[in-house]
Amino acid sequence: MSPRARRARGPPRPQAEPEPAWWLNLQAHPETTVAPVDGRRRVRGRAADGEERDRLWARWRELDKNLDAYAARRPGRTAVVILEPSPGAAAE
């Protein structure tokens, strides 16, 4: 899968407690529809982990110098969310 086909979502309000409702809903029902500027599409959401999470977190840290400070306010690890095209999904 092309890296452009996947979309990463910034940390869900890294300072927030509890987890935001959209993230809880996505965990319970990972198949959903997104509507970026290039067209609506079906995706499957998941949390990044391991090297993938570390790489994406480092990238967001470059964009937001306060990211680690915000994340330190949370009792647990902040999720980095990946939205991948559902099998057979195409832009609408």
UniProtKB/TrEMBL annotation:
GO terms for molecular function: oxidoreductase activity. Residues 1-22 are annotated as: Disordered. Pfam families: F420H2_quin_red. Coiled coil: none annotated. Residues 1-10 have a biased composition (Basic residues). This is Nitroreductase/quinone reductase family protein. It comes from Amycolatopsis mongoliensis. The lineage of its organism: Bacteria, Bacillati, Actinomycetota, Actinomycetes, Pseudonocardiales.
